[in-house]
Every structure is written in structure tokens, then in C-alpha cells.
Amino acid sequence: MGIRTRKHVYVDGDATFEAYLAWDDGVTQPRPGVLVSHAWRGRSEFENGKAEDLARLGYVGFALDLYGRGVLGTQPEENRRLMQPFIDDRLKLQRHLELALREIRALPEVDESQVAAIGFCFGGLCVLDMARCGADLSAVASFHGLLTPRDTSAANRFAGKVLVMHGWDDPMAPPEQLVTLGKELSELGADWQIHAYGNTLHAFTNPAADDAANGLKFDLRANDRSWQSMQTFLAEAFRQPD
Asked: What is the pTM of this model?
């Protein structure tokens, strides 16, 4: 009895994807599921670890795959090449995210009525786009995400909750973008929170981030605060009505 993991292969036409699933097999009934959307290099051990951490909290963690089975960048230029087509074509990104959402809902371990999504860096943009397109989610949480809005979300509504956790000194999404995002989320009708961490750069949750000159730096305090905030946030989002 304990945390179990498995690879979950799914297809879309000629494309094959491979997610990483983690759950506590000591729980027999379906429970809330949480998608983990990866950073720009693809699904890595970092996202797999977050799925396992979510399983320890009592959820089913599902580290999704946007790029295709076995595709994982190894250097910044390659990572950018993998990510850019989704930045340029947000409808394509939406289709891939909707595919992952359908997959997690179909899992026997998951209560299909209680699903959330969290994401890191590029993955933060991904989960915010799920809110922007009105996805049927209980909640989304972005960790040091990219904040560039879509062009096609103005008429949409999002009934779930949104939590954005961000470094105030993140050069990839400066403070004025947080203000713009708050206005955008209000127009979506979302129940939203933005937490900004002072003296904190991009990628503050990633222990491998150590390039302050380029705006990337792990920060233990912001990492711990954001993860604790996420736990409180998800517990509220998944709370059953009396």
C-alpha cells in the first residue's frame, strides 16, 4: 500500500502521448484529479515528482504530455523550438490540453467531477489558457507562468478558481502583466488570487534553476510558500458542499 505510478499512453490521430500517473492505492474510491502541465522542455522528472507529491496529498496526479511520447528538450534553443508552435497557435494548445483533460476524467481512480490543473513556466500559461477557454475545471494554479493573453478568450467565462503564484522580479512576466491578468480574470468571471513574491525571479520552484543573470533562480522560501498556498487552494476548490 502506498504511492503507485504508471505511464499512461494516449493517442490523437497519428500522434502518441505519454503521461505519468501517480496515486495512493490505499484509497479505493475515486478522488480528485490534478493535471500537471510541464515547462518548456517537456514532461520531465520535475513534473513526474509533482504528480507524486499530489498523490501524497490524496489526489491523482497526472503529468500530461504536450509534445509527444519521448520528446524532451535538452537545451534552451531546443526547448524554445518545442514550445513556440503552441505559443503561436493557442487553438492547437487548447486542443492538446482538452485531450489531456478527457484522459484524466476517464481514469477509474479519478472523480470526473473534481479535476484541477497546475502548471509551471510554460505550463502556467497552459493552465491559464484552460481557464481562458472556459474549461470545465474546479481550479487552476500557475507557478511562475507566462502570462501572455490569448486573442480569443473575451467572450468566455470560467466558473472555477484561479491561483497565480509569481516572482515579482520575474523578467519573463513583469508586474504590469500581473495587473493586466487580474483585469482579464475579472472579465472571465473567475474567483481569482494573485500571490507575488518579493525579490524572486522566474523558475523559483525548480532546484536546478541557477542562472540569476538570465532571470532564473530557485528560491526555497517562495517554493515552500507557493506549495502551501496551492494545498490550501485545492482543498477549498475540492470541498464538497454541505
From this structure: 0.96
